[in-house]
TrEMBL record:
<dbReference type="InterPro" id="IPR050197">
    <property type="entry name" value="Aldolase_class_II_sugar_metab"/>
</dbReference>
<dbReference type="Pfam" id="PF00596">
    <property type="entry name" value="Aldolase_II"/>
</dbReference>
<keyword id="KW-0479">Metal-binding</keyword>
<dbReference type="InterPro" id="IPR001303">
    <property type="entry name" value="Aldolase_II/adducin_N"/>
</dbReference>
<dbReference type="GO" id="GO:0005829">
    <property type="term" value="C:cytosol"/>
</dbReference>
<dbReference type="GO" id="GO:0046872">
    <property type="term" value="F:metal ion binding"/>
</dbReference>
<dbReference type="GO" id="GO:0019323">
    <property type="term" value="P:pentose catabolic process"/>
</dbReference>
<dbReference type="GO" id="GO:0016832">
    <property type="term" value="F:aldehyde-lyase activity"/>
</dbReference>
<feature type="domain" description="Class II aldolase/adducin N-terminal">
    <location>
        <begin position="11"/>
        <end position="195"/>
    </location>
</feature>
<keyword id="KW-0456">Lyase</keyword>
<protein>
    <submittedName>
        <fullName>3-hydroxy-2-methylpyridine-4,5-dicarboxylate 4-decarboxylase</fullName>
    </submittedName>
</protein>
<dbReference type="InterPro" id="IPR036409">
    <property type="entry name" value="Aldolase_II/adducin_N_sf"/>
</dbReference>
Amino acid sequence: MTIPRPQALLDQLVTATRILVHEGVMDVFGHVALRDPSDPGVFWLARAGAPARLTAGDLLPFDLDGAPLEPTDAALFSERFIHAAVFRADATAQASVHHHAAALMPYCMGGRPLVALSQTGAWMGAEVPLWDSRASFGDTNMLVTDMAQATDLAAALTPGRIVLMRGHGVLVTGTGPEDVVFRCIHACREAETLTAALTLGPVTPLSEGEIALAGTPAPAAVRRGWDHWTARLPGDTTYRKGAQ
């Protein structure tokens, strides 16, 4: 089975990955997935490899069970099921990112909740949920390696499109590559702000009313962020392509 390659989408996936690497969200671990615009039952994800070296040629199509749709000898990410479960559960999700950003990892340990403090973090909601694999699956190797675990994780996503994974990392979804990159970066910025503010004393989270009024990222702000972050990318300008 050969799936037509949506080249514009694949370029956007590469760009999104490079932005997240360059902005310190993604390190050696982590991956971006985008739903195919022509077939909602297909998503694109890289073969397992270093995010900073990703090219469009590394991208493969998968179904919503996390199975590759083309024969391949490439090593695959064991946690590809996360994205399959996201796209299966939420028809509005067009992009999915799993990462382990250092700014957010302290809030993945369960000691203190991640709360929204500012306008650019309002989309996260009053408190970001913390998913604990042990609650449903007992002791594991801390990876999400099958659809049962991934489905349980996806169910923990809030309307804010973010969930922390206890002792592991973060899952963020979005309506497209620009939107999910905006959310990933500003979740890290909000965590950095909260961590710093707590050293000064008590903090004042956003109210429910403030969240309701400011909680959806403005399309113009999302686009401005993409333009800013792509302009900061070093090297080949081939990858400075926004969503068309």
